[in-house]
Amino acid sequence: MIPVCRIEDLPEGESVRIEIDDATPAIAVFHTDGALYAVDDTCSHQDASLSEGWVEGCFVECPLHAALFDLRTGAPVCLPARRPVRTHEVSVVDGMIHVRPAVPEEEAVA
């Protein structure tokens, strides 16, 4: 599990981008609708940071072309995005938010 920040440092409606290492894509962590969600930070349509997007309910809108993603599943809800973004497990331990990065598909299959 990767520590992100304390829960009080990520207010409702806000997001934070975390970078783990050069081999792991950046992850965006969102606090919305009373829950925490983590997805790949890069929009699957084009290179834009979803942590800089607009959050409404359980959805984030890409700031570049307005692709909308469901934070619960990573699925795109509208064009231009056609591919989902990966979701990651989020937990809170002693007030600290942690993310467990999902295993990339190519590693999960091998």
UniProtKB/TrEMBL annotation:
Residues 2-99 form the Rieske domain. One of its GO terms (molecular function) is 3-phenylpropionate dioxygenase activity. Keywords: 2Fe-2S, Dioxygenase, Iron, Iron-sulfur, Metal-binding, Oxidoreductase. It comes from Streptomyces halobius. It is an enzyme of class 1 (oxidoreductase). Its EC number is 1.14.12.19. The keyword Iron-sulfur applies. This is Bifunctional 3-phenylpropionate/cinnamic acid dioxygenase ferredoxin subunit.
